[in-house]
Design brief:
Blueprint: E1 8-13, H1 14-17, E2 40-48, E3 51-60, E4 65-72, H2 81-95, E5 99-102, H3 109-117, H4 132-137
Parallel strand pairs: 4-5
Antiparallel strand pairs: 1-2, 2-3, 3-4
Length: 138
């Protein structure tokens, strides 16, 4: 996938990802938890004029699979930056010998579009439901 030349891209290794926790606004891409059971193993960042505007990270979910997450700051959305980050990170995860996967809520059509444009195919779907009366009790 060709990269948008307006942005600068960098690969961030596991030991340096904690430095990204200083940045706010990337709650979908970062866990902000140094004690996570499924830590971020590698990330790709996009910078615009020395400011980080997008992050995709891969969490070590198990011995063979890493989950990819992405977030782009609102003013920079809509220019395929999320797709570029996910695609770039997917290839990096594959090169390291792990199976990447991308998960999103079934109602998040924009995130689903990012996944498909980055090369993912829908393989399974599930939903959770909550009974309103149970919510009212608490």
């Amino acid at each position: 996938m060709s990269k948008n030349n307006e942005f600068e891209y960098s690969l961030i290794e596991k030991d340096d990802i904690q430095k990204l926790y200083e940045l706010k606004g990337f709650n979908y891409a970062l866990q902000y938890d140094v004690n996570s059971k499924h830590p971020e193993m590698v990330a790709v960042i996009a910078k615009y004029k020395d400011m980080v505007v997008g992050i995709a990270s891969a969490n070590g979910e198990c011995k063979t699979m890493w989950q990819i997450s992405v977030d782009v700051l609102p003013p920079y959305r809509g220019n395929k930056l999320a797709t570029i980050l996910v695609n770039t990170l997917t290839l990096e995860v594959l090169n390291r010998g792990y199976i990447p996967y991308y998960s999103t809520d079934c109602s998040n059509v924009i995130s689903q579009r990012v996944a498909v444009q980055a090369g993912y195919l829908p393989t399974w779907s599930h939903c959770f439901r909550t009974r309103l009366c149970e919510l009212l009790k608490s």
